[in-house]
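User: I've been trying to design a sequence by hand for this structure and keep getting stuck. Would you show me what you'd pick, starting by listing the structure so we're on the same page?

Assistant: Good idea, let's start from the same input. This is the structure you sent:
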């Protein structure tokens, strides 16, 4: 039994020796607002651009929801997605230039402040 185990381990090491490892980093900026809460707008953390396409996902939950998720580069608007009760999820591929910082900003429309519904925005990519 010991010989078989040693041979198996040596074979595994030999196989792994020819494999190159690539570790990917995932960058995410997320913010969530809830109707009836203050503030009605929240910002996610900043992530670096990397000459990559990131996925903006804007999702609403609740019986009545209206909101907007915006990608910002500093104070500059890049792209927005608007959601409502009929269209509770929208996505968009967003190009993030290198050397810049980006973040998502989520806003909840005042019309539905007392519904308790939420709007969540996520901007993410893997490098």
């Amino acid at each position: 039994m010991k010989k078989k185990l040693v041979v198996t381990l040596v074979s595994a090491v030999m196989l792994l020796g020819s494999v190159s490892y690539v570790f990917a980093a995932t960058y995410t900026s997320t913010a969530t607002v809830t109707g009836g809460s203050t503030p009605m707008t929240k910002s996610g953390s900043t992530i670096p651009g990397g000459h990559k396409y990131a996925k903006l996902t804007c999702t609403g939950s609740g019986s009545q929801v209206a909101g907007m998720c915006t990608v910002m580069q500093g104070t500059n608007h890049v792209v927005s997605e608007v959601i409502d009760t009929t269209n509770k999820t929208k996505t968009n591929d967003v190009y993030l230039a290198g050397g810049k910082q980006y973040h998502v900003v989520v806003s909840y429309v005042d019309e539905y402040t007392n519904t308790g519904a939420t709007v969540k925005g996520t901007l993410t990519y893997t490098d």
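That's my pick for every position. To get oriented when you compare it with your attempt: Residues 95 and 119 are 23 Å apart (CA to CA). The helical segments are 2-17.
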